[in-house]
Amino acid sequence: MNGWLQHLPILPVLLPLCTGTLLLLSSEQRRGRRAAIALCATLAQLAVAIVLLAMADGRVVAPWPGEIGVYALGNWAAPFGIVLVVDRLAAIMLTLAATLGLATLIYSLARWERAGIHYLPLFQFLLMGLNGAFLTGDLFNLFVFFEVLLAASYGLALHGSGAARVSAGMHYIAVNLVASLLFLIAAALIYGVTGTLNMAELAQRVAVLDADDRTLFDLGAVLLGIVFLVKAGAWPLNFWLPAAYGAATPPVAGIFAILTKVGVYALLRFAVLLEDVGAPAPFRGDWLFYCGLATIAAGTIGVLAAQKLDRLASHLVIVSSGTLLAAFGFTGTTLTGPALYYLVSSVLGMGAFFLVIEMAERNRTVAADMLAISLEAFGLQDKLDSEHPDEVAGIPIPAAMAFLGLAFFSCALLLTGLPPLSSFVGKFALLSAAIAAPPQAPLLHAGLFVAALLLSGLAGVIALSRLGIRVFWDTERPTPRLQWLEAGPVAGLVLVCVVLSFGAGPAMSYFNAAAQSLHDASVYVGSVLPAAAAGGAP
Amino acid sequence: MEIVFALAVGVLAGSGIYLLLRPRTFQVIMGLSLLAYAVNLFIFAMGRLRLGAAPVIDPARGSDPALYADPVPQALVLTAIVIGFATTALFLVVLLASRGLNGTDHVDGREPDKE
What is the pLDDT of residue A524? Predict the structure, then answer.
C-alpha cells in the first residue's frame, strides 16, 4: 500500500493527461459517456489533492520522510532528474485548482460545452498544466507546464468562436507567446551561469557565483520575473487581460480566474528560494510592492469605468492580483499567510462570479444569439433546441431570480471583502498584519497598503451595486431559465467560501504554516537535494 | 565564430521585434518566428560554443566531460522548437480566423480610422 501511495504526487499530472487523451479519441457523439469520464477524472483529482493537502500537514501519514514530499520522476536523483515537490503551498493550489475545475466543468456540461469542439479534452489539459506548474521543482519543466496550460487556454479562450473572441484571443496569444520566449531566454541565461535548472540547487549555486556571472544571473531572473508578472496581470503588463477574460465563454473565464494566480504562485516560489541570496527586483521589496499598488489602482479605475459585468469581473481579477503582489512585496513575511488565504477565497469568489454573470445576463438576446450561431455552425444542437433556439432545455428553477440575486450578492461580498464571507477574513487578516508591521516596515507602506485595500473594496462595492441594480431591478427583462447543473456549481463555490469563513481559525493556521515553511527555504532545499536518494523510490 | 553567432542572434531578434510591433498579423507571425529562431540559437549558445564536440557520450572517446558539448541546452532547444512550432501553427489558425471574421488583417480586427 505504502509503495503505491508514493506515486500520489504524479497523479495530478497523469490523470488529466490520460483523461484528455481518452476524450480526444472518443467520439463527440457519445456525450453522456464523455461527460461521465471528465467528471470522474476531475473528482479523482480533487480527492488526490485533498489527500496531498492532509499529507503535507502530517494529518495523514505521508509516504515520504520529513515535511516536504519529493517525487523523483523516473527515480533519477534530484539535481540530475526532474522532481515534483509537494509542500503545503503546492497542495493548497492543487486543491484550489481541482475545486474550481470541478465547479466550472459541471457548469459547462449544462450547455457551454456544446458551443464548440474538444472542450472537455482541452479542459483536462489545462488542469494538467496547472497541476504540473504547481508541483514541479524544475525551471524548464515549469516552462513546459506553462506552455501546456497556455496552449489549452488558447483553445478554450477561442471556444465558441465569434469575432470578439478571436480578436481578443489573438492579442492574448501574441502576448503570451512573447512572454514564453522571454521565459526561454531567462531559463537559458540562468542555466548558462549556474549550470542547473533544479530550483533547489539553483538557490545554492547562486550564492557562490562571482560578480560577472551574478550580473548575468540577475538579468535572467529579472526576465523571469517579468514573465511571471505578465501572467499575473501586473500593471503595466496587463492590457491583454480584460478583453481576453471578458470575451471568453463564462465557464472558461471561471477557470481562467486561477491562471493569473499561477504567475503569482511562481513569483512567490522563486522569491523565497532566492531570498537568502538577495532576489533581484521583480521578486521582492519596494519594487514589487509599488507594482502591486499600481496594479490595484489600474484595476480599481477599470472597475469603476466598466460598463458590462464581464469587464467588471476581469478588472476585479486585476485588483486581486495587485493585492497579492503588494502583500508579497510588503516588508517582512507576516503577510504571506493571510495573502494565501485571500488568494484562495478571491479565486473561488471570482470563479463563481463569472458563472453568475452569465446566468444573470442570459436574458439579453445577444449572448443567446451567439450561442445559437455557434451551435448551428458545429451542427451540434439537439432537435428540441432547434425549435426554440433561445430556450435551451432544462427545468426552470422556481424563483431563479431569487437564487441569482442571492448568488450575485454573495459574490459581491466575496469580491469586495465585506463581512461575513471568507474574503473579509482574508482582507481583515491582511490589514491587521499590515498595521502591526510598522516597527519593521516603513509606516508609509503600511498606510498605502491599507488605503489601497480599502479604496479598491469601496470601488468594487460602488461598481457592483450600480451594475447589479441595472441587471436585477430591470422589470423589462424576462426571468432567465436555469438548470440545476448550472446553479449547483455556483452554490457549491459559495458554500466552500462559507465553510472557509466558519473554519477560518484552522484554515488560517494551515495557511500560516504554509507561509512559514515556505519562507524557510533551507527546508525546501534540504528536502529536495539529499532526500532525493531516499524518497521517491518505488 | 562568437562574433558571427552573436550578430546572427542580434539581427534575428532585432528584426523579430520590429516585425512584432507592426500592425499586420502576417508581420506579427513572421516576427514571432524570427524571435523564436533567435531565442533557440541563444539557448544553444548558453551551452557554450564548441567545435567538434558531440553531446552524446561515445565509448571510443572516453568519458571525460571536457570532450563533449553540454547536452542539456540541446535538449532544451529541441523542446523549445517543438513547442514553438505548435504555438506558431495555432497562431496561424487564429490569424486566418480573424481575417475571415473581420475581413481585415489588422491586429485589432479593424482598420484604424483615417485622419
Answer: 81
A169 to chain B: which residues are within 8 Å by CB? 94
pLDDT of residue A287: 82
pLDDT for the residue A96: 92
DSSP letters spanning B35-64:
HHHHHHHHHHHHT---SS--SS--TTT-S-
For residue A307, the model assigns a pLDDT of 79
pTM: 0.86
Nearest beta carbon to residue B43 from set A162, A166, A184: A184
Mutate to test the interface with B, among A125, A138, A145, A167 (most CBs of B within 10 A): A167
Which stretches of chain A score pLDDT less than 70?
1-2, 278-279, 281-282, 284, 363-399, 474-480, 530-538
CA distance A175 to chain B (A): 10
Best A80, A140, A153, A177 residue to mutate vs chain B (most B CBs within 10 Å): A177
pLDDT tens track for A343-392 = 998 999 889 888 888 877 776 544 444 444 455 455 444 444 444 444 44
What pLDDT does residue B10 have? 94
**Cβ B32–A158 below 8 Å, yes or no?**
no
Does A170 contact B98 at a Cβ distance shorter than 8 Å?
A: yes
Residues in contact with B22: Cβ distance below 8 Å, sequence separation at least 6, in sequence order: B28, B31
The answer to whether position A164 is within a domain reads: yes
End-to-end distance of chain A based on CA atoms, in angstroms? 11
Phi then psi for A83, rounded to 5 degrees? -115, 150
In this prediction, residue A244 carries a pLDDT of 84
Residue A411 lies in a domain: yes
Predicted-complex ipTM score = 0.92
Query: How many domains, chain A?
Result: 1
Q: Which residues in chain A have Cβ-Cβ distances shorter than 8 Å to B87?
A: 147, 150-151, 154, 173, 177, 180
Q: How confident is the model at residue B115 (pLDDT cuts 50, 70, 90)?
A: low
> Would you say residue A481 lies in a domain?
yes
Residue A534 belongs to some domain of the structure? no
Which residue numbers of B have CB closer than 8 Å to A's CBs? 20, 25, 28, 32, 35-36, 39-40, 42-43, 46-47, 72-73, 76, 79-80, 83, 86-88, 90-91, 94-95, 97-98, 101-102, 107-109
The answer to whether the Cβ–Cβ distance between B87 and A162 falls below 8 Å is no
Tell me how close the Cα of B68 comes to any Cα of chain A, in angstroms. Answer: 15
Question: Is the pLDDT score of B9 beyond 90?
Answer: yes
What is the domain extent for residue A76?
A: 2-378+395-527
Residue A423 pLDDT: 84
A307-312 long-range Cβ contacts below 8 angstroms, 24+ apart: A308/A246, A308/A467, A309/A357, A309/A360, A309/A361, A309/A467, A309/A471, A310/A245, A310/A246, A310/A247, A310/A253, A310/A354, A310/A357, A310/A361, A311/A242, A311/A246, A312/A463, A312/A464, A312/A467
Nearest CB neighbour to B95, from listed A154, A170, A180: A170
Q: Measuring CA to CA, which residue among A182, A66, A77, A176 is closest to residue A537?
A: A77
